[in-house]
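re: the backbone from monday

yeah here it is again, tokenized this time
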């Protein structure tokens, strides 16, 4: 069954005929739907007369675009140099255990959390650092992770 993307018509109307519209269009569509599915990208390609391969190429090149549904809360674990030397691996292991993520998955089965690695969260003096949504937690130890996650559960 084909999905109905008519909710995107107002967004598409803003970008039709404009130059350099692809990234802002995809951002706005992602904000609306939460992620960019393959069927959505095909729909967009038809609507804006851009090859689907080009839309898929942009969506997969930029890490800001999500191609799968995400959890309610985004957990970013920093793997930058300052955090790496301050036990970022231990922090990530504690997150994996507390979130009980299945092998190869980054979103919990209840769709509450999505875990992502990032290169730097911009607050290296607080290493090791994680960010959950817009909250930053620094100078972490692995033992602190379960209590921090509990603040975001339901
Ligand atoms: S390296 Fe982790 S915040 Fe910069």
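seq for it, each position gets an aa:
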């Amino acid at each position: 069954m084909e999905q109905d993307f008519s909710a995107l018509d107002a967004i598409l109307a803003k970008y039709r005929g404009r130059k350099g519209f692809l990234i802002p269009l995809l951002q706005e569509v992602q904000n609306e739907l939460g992620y960019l599915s393959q069927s959505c990208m095909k729909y967009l390609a038809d609507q804006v007369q851009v090859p689907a391969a080009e839309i898929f190429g942009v969506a997969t090149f930029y890490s800001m675009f999500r191609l799968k549904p995400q959890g309610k809360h985004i957990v970013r674990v920093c793997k930058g140099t300052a955090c790496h030397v301050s036990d970022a691996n231990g922090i990530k292991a504690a997150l994996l255990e507390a979130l009980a993520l299945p092998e190869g998955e980054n979103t919990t089965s209840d769709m509450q959390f999505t875990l992502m690695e990032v290169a730097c969260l911009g607050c290296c003096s607080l290493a090791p650092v994680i960010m959950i949504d817009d909250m930053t937690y620094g100078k972490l130890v692995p033992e602190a992770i379960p209590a921090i996650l509990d603040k975001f559960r339901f």
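The chain has two domains: 6-61, 73-150. The CA atoms of residues 30 and 47 lie 16 Å apart.
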